[in-house]
């Protein structure tokens, strides 16, 4: 990681989140050194799933190589990235080979195997479960959707608790900059959203009064490609870099016996032939351009297997090009 240009404002925000400011990578003024360029650009990927797919290193390396080539201001991964095993250090090094700030969002699978969120963050060298930073006139907020809800239902947590909500409200009140939020689970109205997503949307919508401040909220988790706009805020689902989940009734063997044995869950997925990711540009007029990527499934495809999600936004090997205003 790179720890440049950390402002006093970033220090106060970071310490308020309970971490040292020196742990937070600042956004360099890379854009300002490029004439005739938009205000901010960044690379974004989601749900690489190092611990589930055999070609995660290649997928990530392609993304980082392209991000360095484009000289974007920063990169961010939206969770379900890798667990804190020593064997994953090489994978993590690929991500941190980006020649600028490389940010992390916690996913629900990043603590599989009995790890805590703190252990995963320490392995990633990431500053906190939730934090914010400024980059060339835009404010960015990273949220953690894995808080533990009191009396919650079984399954993975999908919740943002009162302490984090209070921090978010204070953080948004302290900036006048146009703002983007990132989370693993969605804040929209989908089935897989954070359980109290409506409470979070209310905080964002309040920050948009009297004038618009929150431009968009990006998430992963759903392995889906779509945008939902609610009360003027765009909720952007970034598709998985690696695959679609199909489940046990749609199992298929696509790789060698050795790979299938080492990665026993890969047969329950519809893997992508190439990695997919996106590059996002925030223009001075606050319009957002998303440049995605399209590949194809390694057969048999979800349609070949008669999966109910075949040919829907939840089963497509692409991230669409979009312009949001």
Detailed description of the structure:
- This protein has 325 residues and is of the alpha/beta class.
- It has a single domain (8-324), classed as 4-Layer Sandwich (Purple Acid Phosphatase, chain A, domain 2), CATH 3.60.21.10.
- It has helices spanning 8-16, 56-70, 89-95, 117-124, 162-173, 197-207, 257-262, and strands at 40-45, 74-77, 102-104, 131-135, 138-142, 179-183, 214-219, 226-230, 233-237, 243-245, 269-271, 278-282, 288-291, 322-324.
- The strands form 3 sheets. A 6-stranded mixed β-sheet has the order 3-2-1-12-13-14, covered by helices on one side. Strands 4-5-6-7-9-8 form a 6-stranded mixed β-sheet.
- Helix 2 (56-70) links the parallel strand 1 (40-45) and strand 2.
- The longest helix is centred in the first third of the chain and has 15 residues, at 56-70.
- The protein is globular, with a radius of gyration of 19 Å.
- The two termini are 32 Å apart.
- Residues 1-23 and 29-35 have low confidence and may be disordered.
Strand and helix order: HEHEHEHEEHEHEEEEHEEEE
| Category from helices, strands and their pairing | alpha/beta
Low-confidence stretches: 1-23, 29-35
CATH superfamily, by name, is Metallo-dependent phosphatases
Protein name: Phosphodiesterase, family
Organism: Anaerohalosphaera lusitana
Biased composition (Polar residues): 308-325
Domain Calcineurin-like phosphoesterase: 42-224
């Amino acid at each position: 990681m790179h720890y440049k240009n950390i402002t006093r404002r970033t220090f106060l925000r970071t310490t308020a989140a309970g971490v040292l400011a020196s742990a937070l990578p600042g956004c360099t003024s890379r854009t300002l050194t490029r004439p005739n360029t938009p205000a901010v650009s960044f690379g974004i990927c989601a749900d690489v799933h190092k611990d589930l797919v055999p070609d995660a290193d290649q997928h990530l390396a392609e993304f980082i190589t392209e991000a360095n080539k484009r000289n974007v201001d920063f990169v961010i991964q939206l969770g379900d990235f890798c667990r804190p095993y020593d064997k994953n250090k090489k994978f993590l090094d690929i991500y941190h080979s980006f020649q600028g700030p490389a940010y992390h969002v916690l996913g629900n699978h990043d603590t599989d195997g009995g790890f805590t969120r703190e252990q995963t963050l320490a392995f990633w060298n990431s500053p906190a479960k939730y934090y914010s930073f400024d980059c060339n006139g835009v404010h960015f907020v990273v949220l953690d959707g894995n808080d533990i809800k009191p009396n919650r239902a079984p399954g993975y947590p999908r919740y943002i608790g009162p302490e984090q909500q209070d921090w978010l409200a204070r953080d948004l009140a302290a900036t006048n900059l146009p703002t983007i939020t990132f989370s693993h689970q969605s804040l929209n109205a989908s089935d897989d959203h954070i359980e109290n997503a409506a409470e979070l949307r209310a905080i964002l919508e309040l920050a948009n009064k009297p004038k618009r401040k929150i431009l968009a909220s990006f998430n992963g988790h759903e392995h889906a490609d779509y945008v939902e706009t609610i009360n003027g805020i765009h909720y952007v689902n970034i598709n998985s870099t690696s695959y679609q989940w199909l489940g046990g009734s749609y199992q298929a063997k696509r790789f060698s016996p050795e790979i299938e044995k080492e990665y026993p869950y890969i047969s329950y997925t519809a893997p992508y032939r190439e990695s997919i990711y996106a590059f996002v540009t925030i223009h001075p007029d606050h319009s957002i351009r998303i440049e995605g990527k399209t590949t194809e499934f390694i057969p048999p495809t979800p349609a070949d297997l008669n999966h109910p999600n075949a040919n829907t936004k939840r089963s497509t090997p692409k991230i669409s090009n979009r312009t949001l205003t």
